[in-house]
Amino acid sequence: MAAIYVFAGIMHFIKPKMYMRIMPRYLPNHKLLVLLSGIAEIALGIALCIPVLKTSAIYGIIAMLVVFLLVHFYMLSGEKASAGIPKWILILRIPLQFVLMYWAWSYL
């Protein structure tokens, strides 16, 4: 799990435009938010590997995934917001968020 979050966080720096395209329009400063979310994913992924930080990291990951639901619901709001991703995939991503939350919770 740690490797997945570190990799996902690094991708925010390698392909920031991809993430900025899917940011809800009502959120300010998309570039900063993409970079901060990348930092959060990397930090939480690393923290999973540090026993004293593991529990906090798990709760942080769950909170982050809840916040990311905003993006998933926003992407369902219209053609432009979907970034060309088929609607059925966007719909499947929502329950996937809850699976990821449960996966994190199972490490407690």
From TrEMBL:
Keywords (alphabetical) are: Membrane, Transmembrane, Transmembrane helix
Q: Which domain of life is it from?
A: Bacteria
Mark the transmembrane ranges: 57-76, 88-105
Stated name of the protein:
DoxX family protein
Source organism of this protein record: Gaetbulibacter jejuensis
